[in-house]
Amino acid sequence: MRWLTDPQLPWPPLHGRRRRRLWLPPGRSIASTISGRLIVAGWLLSGILFGNAALYGQDQQGAASVQPVITTDRPAVTDSSIVVPSGYLQFENGFTETGNQGQQGFDFPETLVRFGLTSKTELRFTPPDYFQNFNTGSGFGTGWGDLSLGVKQQLFATSGGFDASLVVSLSFPTGANIISSHGYDPEVQLPWSHPVSKNWTAAGMFSLLWPTEGASRNFTGQASFLLDRQITSRWDAFIEYAGEFPERGGSQDLLHVGTSFKLTPNQQLDFHFGFGLSSAAVHDFVGFGYSFQLQAIHRQKRDGS
Asked: Quick check: helix, strand or coil at residue 126?
């Protein structure tokens, strides 16, 4: 998830893809948080309405043919081990509220745009996220974060169900002065998954990051592992451990639980929450999201590249 893997932010909380440590500074009115929730609720409703309008025609056409079911990188820290289908455009969005030391903060829209370039390659664009009451380490700030570009390559998709891919991305210092890392920060991720039974799947991800912190980089490793339970054909739930291990600073560990429900083959709602397991991690966080995909380019079956 974005919130774990954004290299310019101090860690958590967490997806589908950022790391942040958010809370209200002393003396800050809680009214700003309530107002922010209303803004996010309006944004999410608008997104669902837009998604439904954009997908209505495709869902009608797809009733007579087999459609690829949406598979997202959120809400887990662990990314999906497969790429977006060739010619498809996918939008993943969300909101996370974080609590630490009795204070609150939030960020949205956590957007990740994924495009299936071929059957094994996708292009990725992460627009800037908006942070409210963000603790930068040197003070509290509000503003937009950095954007990033990336590519995801399918490495394995075996008949036995083992899937793995490689994600390479680079963030650009486009954010607000108090939020941005002010550096070009690379990141490499290796998500994998394997079914262990009819309804259970094990998955995980290994990541290497080189975030800019001050005048130097702080080489950081990340690892996550989850178990996912398919409850019905449309509904699943997971439990996950995620840890970050920086070269400078203490390790940060999280316990993460979430669920997702597919409204249609092209639309998904999700909900997740978690807790810090170490002193360096945030105390708790909760979030939700809405994602959808649409077929942007119609290609012939012979496209197997």
From this structure: strand
For residue 198 the two structure tokens come to: 């009819």
Helices and strands counted in the chain (H then E)? 2, 17
Residue 19 has pLDDT above 50, yes or no: no
**What rounded mean pLDDT belongs to the chain?**
82
**Cβ atoms within 10 Å, residue 264:** 18
Report yes or no on 302 lying in a domain: no
For residues 86 and 302, the answer to whether their CB atoms sit within 8 Å is no
- Separation of alpha carbons 254 and 278, rounded Å: 8
Decide if 304 is inside a domain.
no
The total number of structural domains in the chain stands at 1
Counting residues of the chain whose pLDDT is more than 90, the rounded percentage is: 62
DSSP 249: S
What distances in angstroms separate CA 172 from CA 27, 127, 255, one per listed residue? 33, 10, 30
Query: What's the confidence (pLDDT) of residue 15?
Result: 32
If pLDDT is split at 50, 70 and 90, which confidence band does 20 have? Answer: very low
Q: Rounded CA gap, 209 and 172, in Å?
A: 14
Encoding tokens for residue 182?
A: 């002010």
Q: Is the pLDDT assigned to residue 204 strictly greater than 70?
A: yes
CA distance 220 to 277: 18
Q: What is the CATH number of the domain that holds 34?
A: 2.40.160.40
Question: Of 224, 171, 302, which is closest to residue 15 (Cα–Cα)?
Answer: 224
User: Which residue range forms the structural domain that includes residue 111?
Assistant: 2-295
Q: What is the DSSP letter of 163?
A: E
Global pTM reads: 0.80
Residue 305 lies in a domain: no
Other beta carbons within 10 Å of 16 = 30
pLDDT tens for 63-79 read 456 789 999 999 999 99
